[in-house]
Design goal:
By secondary structure, the protein is α/β, with parallel strands linked by helices. It has 10 helices and 11 strands. The strands form 2 sheets. It has a 7-stranded mixed sheet with strand order 3-2-1-4-5-10-11, with helices on both faces. Strands 7-8-6-9 form a 4-stranded parallel sheet, sandwiched between helices. Strand 4, helix 4 and strand 5 form a beta-alpha-beta unit. Bound molecules: 6-O-phosphono-beta-D-fructofuranose (F6P). 6-O-phosphono-beta-D-fructofuranose (F6P) binds next to loops.
Length: 328
Amino acid sequence: MTQKKSLKTIGILTSGGDCPGMNCSIRAIVRTAIGEGIRVKGIEGGYAGIFKENIINLSISSVGNIIQRGGTILRSSRCLEFHEKSFRKKAAVILKRHGIDALVVMGGNGTFAGAHIFNQEHGIPVVGIPGTIDNDIMGTEYSIGFDTAIQTAMEAVDKIRDTAFSHNRNFLIEVMGRKSPAIALKVGVCSGAENIILNPEEEDLDQVVKDIKRGIKRGKKSSIIIVAEGEEPGLSYALQAELKEKYKIDSTVCILGHIQRGGSPTAFDRFMASKMGFMAVKALIAKNYPSVTIYKNGRVTIAPLKKCLDTKKKPKKEALELIRALSI
Ligand code: F6P
């Protein structure tokens, strides 16, 4: 469904797990829209902020000095009510009352699924900006926050490597990315990990153990194994127990956790988020919605929202081959 009347006020919300770069997009949306004579309102706390009517006016100066800040000044949440049709109906009424005639939503798969059904049911124009450290959104090669998360995790692994070396220890370092091994794959390569466990619930540890033993043979006294989070955090402890019981190998678990979601965005994230925020407003003006700003073949462009809804994006596993080749 499309909307006939002209665009006067855009609402912005950030939803799901936050990520570094969201503030850069908020700034870009506000400044591009105001430059085009369009008002902007910020909805605080994701979709839940609509029901609470936590809706504020955003001005050019309210987004000053935020480009370097991690998190989201609009705050975020995972809103279960938005799964219910009656709540979405209520949300449409509230947005209308606040004069909001289009939405830009930033987040991951859940955020986009909510935006899609909301658009289908109520015709409100929506543009999504992929923002999740997991980089698991279909249809785009990049989601804002991924680069910063990789940088943070890599620096943490470098520090752990120092103490692993000093104490001759094997470390299982668990990185974030529920159901998505994208962070694990990239951090594995960038931190020179000896191995990587992509699916902690199904991994056959024989190969991992063979690799540890091969390293020991050539004089290595410590190793770094990156573990993808999988279905839930903490699965590394079961792997640690298995290594000990079945293979008599000692290891130390370190779960990096939410440190990976915070921090000042890298230059790459700042640039991508700024460009995507700018493009999102241009897409609304051009009535190119429901859509998503995507990164493809080295360019930021616009794709139909429905092409970005599938949750089965498979990360490219060439990184695994690279880790194996480089850790012999
Ligand atoms: O935002 C993505 C993500 O950080 C995943 O990598 C992780 O599994 C999940 O969110 C954690 O969510 P929460 O902070 O709600 O526990």
